[in-house]
């Protein structure tokens, strides 16, 4: 063992996730994509392995793992379906936020059903007019006795309309990050409604809709943390979310690299397998090298986030940017190596090409990741 190896426990977690993926995700992912099927039963089966509460504390009923273990799980599941893996990551972010910052009352109210995925959670930050500028959100919660009255809307919400729980950032005070709080809102609360399912390039195995709040009365006890703390929680949650999205890119890209190696060894042109051509070998070598480099950076960043290192946010941003850009580049070259066949839905490459494209946009665009890293560098 060296300091760069995974531990025996981490290898066991990785293997368990890989086996689950091989049995329950990979054989069905193409159908989920083509028919826009939301695989609720498969997602709940993942919860039976603890994958719905990866970094919820053991005392709250979770499995209490670190961000590296979470990345290993997300990477393994994305090998079968990046969309489904990313969906489970979002649920984990919402559950972690409740466990880490919620009162005992809100934990007792929601965590037992979130851990089993009897109820599934969405994370609501983005709005129609505030994406990268998340602190400009307009959804407002006004205190009225022992309730908040919430009005506004959230955009691009994974699981909207299907999920039962919405961990939502709202404005309770001044027009700044300090005026943002976090509320847990339930699907069935009067005044909660959903837009039409978005028609997306990829991520077809999960619904994405707008969520609208029209005079929704939310109990004060559903607030996570104190007033004005929501934006800080949201940013802390995004450190982990960025790692998981990067891990999903790694898993999807690894699948496409493996498919490209297999295809080029089978495909004959000019009397021999195209894998024998030096150009093909050079392309495959670059894909593998870049993927390993991205994986090493992401694992390092995950360890820093788990440890609460001072530079954790910078490293999470670097890893997310590099892993998602690398993942898309690797998948694009895998499609090229498949030639015309890579463009067909009979092969998995085009699905991964579509699914991974959004990873450089969500959890903070890769341009914003560069801003975060650049600011950190110039402050020194």
Automatic annotation (TrEMBL):
Any single Pfam family the record assigns to this protein: Acyl-CoA_dh_1
Name listed for the protein in its UniProt record: Alkylation response protein AidB-like acyl-CoA dehydrogenase
Keyword Flavoprotein belongs to the record: yes
GO terms (BP aspect): branched-chain amino acid catabolic process
Domain Acyl-CoA dehydrogenase/oxidase C-terminal: residue ranges: 228-377
Cofactor needs: FAD
InterPro entries, sorted: Acyl-CoA_DH_CS (IPR006089), Acyl-CoA_Oxase/DH_mid-dom (IPR006091), Acyl-CoA_Oxase/DH_mid-dom_sf (IPR046373), AcylCo_DH-like_C (IPR036250), AcylCo_DH/oxidase_C (IPR009075), AcylCoA_DH/ox_N (IPR013786), AcylCoA_DH/ox_N_sf (IPR037069), AcylCoA_DH/oxidase_NM_dom_sf (IPR009100)
Matches recorded under SUPFAM superfamilies: Acyl-CoA dehydrogenase C-terminal domain-like, Acyl-CoA dehydrogenase NM domain-like
GO molecular function term, any single one: flavin adenine dinucleotide binding
Organism of provenance: Sphingomonas kyeonggiensis
Acyl-CoA dehydrogenase/oxidase N-terminal domain boundaries: 7-118
Associated pathway: Amino-acid degradation; L-valine degradation
Similarity annotation: Belongs to the acyl-CoA dehydrogenase family.
């Amino acid at each position: 063992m060296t300091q760069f190896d995974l531990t025996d426990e981490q290898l066991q977690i990785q293997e368990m996730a890989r086996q689950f993926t091989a049995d329950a995700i990979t054989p069905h992912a193409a159908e989920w994509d083509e028919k826009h099927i939301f695989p609720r039963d498969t997602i709940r089966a993942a919860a039976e392995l603890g994958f719905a509460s990866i970094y919820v504390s053991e005392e709250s009923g979770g499995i209490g793992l670190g961000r590296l273990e979470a990345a290993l799980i997300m990477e393994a599941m994305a090998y079968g379906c990046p969309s489904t893996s990313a969906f489970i990551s979002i649920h984990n972010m919402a559950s972690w936020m409740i466990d880490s910052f919620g009162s005992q009352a809100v934990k007792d109210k929601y965590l037992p059903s979130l851990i089993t995925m009897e109820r599934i959670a969405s994370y609501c930050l983005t709005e129609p007019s505030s994406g990268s500028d998340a602190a400009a959100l307009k959804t407002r919660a006004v205190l009225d006795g022992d309730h908040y009255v919430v009005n506004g809307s959230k955009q691009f919400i994974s699981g909207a309309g299907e999920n039962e729980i919405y961990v939502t950032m709202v404005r309770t005070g001044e027009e700044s990050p300090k005026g943002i709080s976090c509320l847990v809102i339930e699907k069935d609360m009067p005044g909660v409604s959903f837009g039409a399912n978005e028609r997306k390039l990829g991520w077809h195995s999960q619904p994405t809709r707008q969520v609208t709040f029209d005079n929704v009365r939310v109990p004060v006890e559903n607030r996570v943390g104190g007033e004005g703390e929501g934006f800080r929680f949201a940013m802390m949650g995004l450190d982990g979310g960025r790692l998981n999205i990067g891990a999903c890119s790694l898993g999807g890209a690894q699948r496409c690299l493996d498919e490209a190696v297999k295809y080029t060894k089978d495909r004959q042109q000019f009397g021999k397998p195209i894998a024998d051509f030096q150009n093909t070998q050079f392309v495959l070598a670059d894909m593998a090298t870049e993927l390993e480099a991205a994986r090493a950076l992401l694992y390092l960043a995950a360890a820093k986030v788990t440890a609460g290192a001072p530079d954790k946010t910078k490293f999470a941003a670097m890893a997310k940017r590099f892993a998602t850009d690398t993942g898309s580049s690797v998948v694009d070259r895998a499609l090229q190596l498949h030639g015309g066949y890579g463009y067909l839905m009979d092969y998995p490459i085009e699905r991964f090409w579509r699914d991974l494209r959004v990873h450089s946009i969500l959890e903070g665009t890769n341009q914003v990741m560069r801003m975060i890293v650049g600011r950190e560098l110039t402050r020194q």
